[in-house]
TrEMBL record:
This is Aminotransferase. InterPro entries: Aminotransferase_I/II_large (IPR004839), AspAT/PAT-like (IPR050596), NHTrfase_class1_PyrdxlP-BS (IPR004838), PyrdxlP-dep_Trfase (IPR015424), PyrdxlP-dep_Trfase_major (IPR015421), PyrdxlP-dep_Trfase_small (IPR015422). It holds the Pfam family Aminotran_1_2. GO terms for biological process: amino acid metabolic process.
Length: 388
C-alpha cells in the first residue's frame, strides 16, 4: 500500500464503507439472483417530467442558479408540503434544494454538530445516519426499538437523554427504512414534547412520505416546526433516484448555515434537474400515489408469502421494505443467513445488522420489483427454509 495512506485525514478513521453497497456487491456474482436488496424503484420517471427536462435543455437552463434552487422550484416545493401535509415554510429563508437527501443530511449535520455531540438514532436505521454522525466527530446514541414495534418511545428517548447529556439531535425516519413502519401523529406528539423539553433539534427524514399505505402520513414538524428539519425528495415518490433531488425545510438559522456548506460542496442542483423537479412537484404532485397502489399490492403478496414460510415480520405501513425475523433454527447471524439465501436460494436480501445493532437476527427485503420476481423469490425462500 502507498505511503500516502499516512496522509489520510484522522476523521476518516471513524467512517466505514457503506455496508449495504458492500454486501450487495458481495453477492452480485450469483447467477440467476433475484435482487431484493437496494431500495431502487423499478418504475421509470414519468414521461411528463422527462419532457420538462428536455424543454429546460432547449430553453438553455444550463447556467449557475441560486444555490437554494430557482424560485420556481422553491415555491413549488413549499406549496407541495403545504398542500400535502399542512406544513408551511418560507421559500426564501426556510428551504434549500440539495443533491439528494444524502447531501442534505451531510450539510445539516455539518451545520449543527461539534465533536462530542450526541445524536439519537432509533435502531434499526438507515445506515448512512451513523457514518454522517461519526464523520463530524459526534457519536450515535443507538436506541433499540425492536421491542416497541420499531418506533422510538418517549420513555426510551428520556432514558437516552438522561444517560447521554451531550445529545443535541434526535433522528426520526417515517416511514422507516428498513422496517417500513410509520409513526402515528400521537406517537410523534409524545416525542415532540420530550424534544422540546430538553431543547433538542429533530431531523425528520420523510423521503417515503408519499408511500404510506394504512394511515395518513404524519410529520413531527406539525408539533415542533421551530426545531425540526424536514428531509424529503423525489427519489422514491417519483422514481427519480438518479436525478438526485433533495428537499430540505427548516428554521431559518439552520437552513442559512447549511446553505453555506452546500455552496462549498455542490454550489447548486443542476438547472435542468430543477425544472424537472418543478414539473414533478406541480403537475406530477400525485404521481407517487399511482405507484403506491402497486407497491401496496406487492407488500401484501410478499408479506403473506413470508408468513406462509414461517417468517414473521413487522407490518410495513409505508416505504417498500419488509423486515423479516430469521427463523430460530438458523440462529441470529443475519450476514451468514443472507449469504446462504443468496448462494443457495438465489434471492438477494440485506442483513438486519447492517442497519444497526438491534437489526441483528433480521433481514430486509425490498419489494420494489415485479410481482413475478416476488412470487418466485417467495417460492425459493420457502423451499430454503423447509430444506434446512
Amino acid at each position: 500500500m502507498s505511503k500516502l495512506i499516512n496522509k489520510i485525514s484522522d476523521r476518516m478513521s471513524n467512517v466505514k464503507p457503506d455496508v449495504l453497497l458492500g454486501f450487495s456487491d458481495s453477492i452480485s456474482d450469483v447467477e440467476g439472483l433475484i435482487p431484493l436488496t437496494i431500495g431502487e424503484p423499478d418504475f421509470n420517471t414519468p414521461d411528463h417530467i422527462k419532457e420538462a427536462a428536455i424543454a429546460a435543455i432547449n430553453n438553455n437552463h444550463s447556467h449557475y442558479t441560486d444555490s437554494r434552487g430557482v424560485k420556481e422550484l422553491r415555491d413549488a416545493a413549499v406549496k407541495f408540503l403545504a398542500d400535502k401535509y399542512d406544513l408551511h415554510y418560507d421559500s426564501e429563508t426556510q428551504f434549500i434544494a440539495t443533491v439528494g437527501v444524502t447531501e442534505a443530511l451531510f450539510i445539516t449535520f455539518g451545520a449543527l454538530l461539534n465533536p462530542g455531540d450526541g445524536v439519537v438514532v432509533p435502531s434499526p436505521a438507515f445506515s448512512p445516519y451513523f457514518n454522517n454522525v461519526e464523520f463530524f466527530g459526534a457519536h450515535s446514541v443507538e436506541v433499540d426499538t425492536s421491542d416497541d414495534g420499531f418506533v422510538l418511545t418517549p420513555e426510551k428517548l428520556e432514558a437516552a437523554i438522561k444517560e447521554h447529556p451531550t445529545i443535541k439531535i434526535v433522528i426520526i425516519n417515517t416511514p422507516n427504512n428498513p422496517t417500513g413502519v410509520s409513526y402515528t401523529s400521537e406517537q410523534l406528539k409524545g416525542l415532540a414534547d420530550v424534544i422540546k423539553k430538553h431543547d433538542l433539534v429533530c431531523f425528520s427524514d420523510e423521503i417515503y412520505s408519499e408511500l404510506t399505505y394504512d394511515q395518513e402520513h404524519a410529520s413531527i414538524a406539525k408539533f415542533i416546526p421551530e426545531r425540526t428539519i424536514v428531509f424529503n425528495g423525489l427519489s422514491k415518490s417519483h422514481a427519480m433516484t438518479g436525478w438526485r433531488v433533495g428537499l430540505v425545510y427548516g428554521p431559518e438559522e439552520i437552513i442559512h448555515t447549511a446553505r453555506s456548506i452546500h455552496e462549498y460542496t455542490a454550489t447548486s442542483l443542476p438547472g435542468v434537474v430543477q425544472y424537472a423537479a418543478v414539473e414533478a412537484l406541480t403537475n406530477g404532485k400525485d404521481d407517487g400515489l399511482e405507484m403506491r397502489k402497486v407497491y401496496e399490492k406487492r407488500r401484501n403478496l410478499l408479506r403473506q408469502g413470508l408468513a406462509d414460510a414461517g417468517i414473521e415480520s413487522a407490518n410495513p405501513s409505508g416505504a417498500f421494505y419488509i423486515f423479516g425475523k430469521i427463523p430460530e433454527k438458523f440462529g441470529d447471524d443475519d450476514f451468514e443467513f443472507c449469504r446462504r439465501v443468496a448462494r443457495e436460494a438465489k434471492v438477494g436480501t440485506m442483513p438486519g445488522s447492517a442497519f444497526g445493532k438491534s437489526g441483528k437476527g433480521y433481514f430486509r427485503l425490498s419489494y420494489a420489483t415485479s410481482e413475478d420476481n416476488l412470487n418466485e423469490a417467495v417460492k425459493r425462500i420457502a423451499k430454503f427454509v423447509e430444506d434446512n
